[in-house]
Design goal:
- The chain has an 8-stranded mixed β-sheet, with helices on one face. Strands 3-2-1-4-5-6 form a 6-stranded parallel β-sheet, with helices on both faces.
- It is built from 12 helices and 14 strands.
- A hairpin with an 8-residue loop joins β12 (253-259) and β13 (268-272).
- It has helices at residues 17-26, 41-51, 60-66, 81-90, 105-116, 132-142, 180-183, 186-196, 278-284, 294-307, 315-334, 348-351; strands at 6-11, 31-37, 56-57, 71-74, 94-97, 122-124, 149-159, 199-207, 218-225, 230-236, 238-250, 253-259, 268-272, 338-339.
- By secondary structure, the protein is α/β, with parallel strands linked by helices.
- Helices cover 34% and strands 24% of the residues.
Length: 361
């Protein structure tokens, strides 16, 4: 760390970059936002003026050449993540990369190779893991209060109109990596995996129901887990009443979450089974209010950097989530179940989320 605060820069100043800038401001006691990068220099200038950033650069190369940098936030389109993250790693600068971290499993593995050769690390943005409700759920699950996990539901039912897909990088496997499975629902099923642990097998369907896209606009999956739990996962962009829902049925209680793009404690519901009313008090006892979001994850990243530990969520851990997305596509497009570990490096669905292509193309 330089001086008394971490020096942070944002690369890519589109819409999501504002959430990252806000997160840095929330950690202003130990982090400074010192640079912004965008190929559109006018947009970068406007972003810098909005967030009081002292320096603007036309490229990541120029930013890194200026030196004295602790962390780069990558907020660029998904197809640029790997080369930009690799450039940061070569300069031994840590990276916080937006989802999806890569467009394929093979790309993620290549980035893992680059990380092993660097003193820096890549951390992936999966901010819903860090709200206080999710933290409490993992605590109660780990200490046995909830009993065994039995059934789970994970629904990302959102709405995007035709105009949303007018951007040339949207709705393609080549640039965005996929449809709602990769670009939208991945946050919710990452949270699902952080609660239930390693998945074992997936059987899925995908469809293009209504939108002008080369990818799916809906996918549905049945997932089994190593611990015996079973879950359904729905990812949709054609649902007028937008919501994000997670439900976990344990032996001793049902834990539910409903929100849209981020949650607070009030968005969680705990329903104990008869004779297990103490679960509710265990949930509420001393529960802090930490909304899910970029600020919560950045605080955890800075904690890890200060302790000299791997940041949350490291590439190796994010790989499990990306592998489930790849397996959903592989299962849906081949009409076969897919087991974790089955998509070997160099295979069709490891090289490209859509494999040889969606059936409708």
């Amino acid at each position: 760390m330089s001086d008394s605060k971490y020096r942070i820069a944002i690369v890519g100043t589109g819409g999501i970059a504002n959430a990252h800038a806000k997160a840095v401001q929330a950690c202003a006691d130990r982090a400074d936002l010192v640079g912004a990068v965008d190929v559109d220099v006018d947009r970068a200038d406007a972003f810098a003026a909005k967030w009081d950033i002292p320096a603007v650069y036309p490229s990541l190369t120029d930013l890194l050449a200026a030196g004295d940098l602790d962390l780069v936030h990558l907020c660029t389109p998904p197809n640029t993540h790997v080369p930009l993250a690799a450039e940061c790693l070569a300069a031994n600068v840590n990276v916080l990369v937006e989802k999806p971290p890569t467009l394929s499993l093979d790309e993620l593995d290549s980035l893992l190779d680059a990380e092993r050769a660097s003193s820096a690390q890549v951390v992936c943005v999966f901010q819903h893991r860090f709200g206080s409700g999710a933290v409490r759920l993992r605590e109660l699950a780990a200490n046995g209060v909830l009993g065994r996990p039995l059934v789970a539901l994970c629904n990302t039912t959102w709405y995007r109109d035709d105009e949303y897909f007018a951007m040339p990088w949207r709705g393609t496997f080549e640039v965005e990596g996929g449809g709602p499975t990769m670009g939208h629902g991945i946050h919710q099923f990452d949270l699902l995996l952080s609660i239930l642990g390693p998945w074992e097998k997936v059987t899925a369907v995908a469809a293009r129901q209504a939108r002008p896209t080369k990818t799916e606009d809906v996918s549905m999956a049945l997932v089994t887990f190593e611990n015996g739990a079973v879950a359904s996962v729905v990812n949709s962009l054609v649902s007028p009443r937008q919501t994000s829902q997670l439900r976990f049925d344990y032996e001793n209680a049902t834990i539910e979450l409903e929100h849209l793009y981020g949650y607070k404690n009030e968005d969680w519901t705990v329903t104990p089974r008869p004779s297990q009313e103490t679960v509710a008090s265990a949930w509420a006892n001393g529960l802090p209010e930490v909304p899910s979001g970029h600020s919560a994850q950045l605080a955890a990243v800075l904690d890890a950097l200060a302790a000299g530990e791997p940041g949350p969520v490291p590439l190796a851990e994010a790989r499990d989530t990306l592998e489930l997305a790849a397996a959903i596509y592989a299962s849906a497009f081949t009409d076969k179940s897919v087991r974790r570990g089955e998509l070997a490096r160099g295979s069709e669905y490891a090289q490209r989320m859509g494999g040889p292509g969606a059936p409708w193309t």
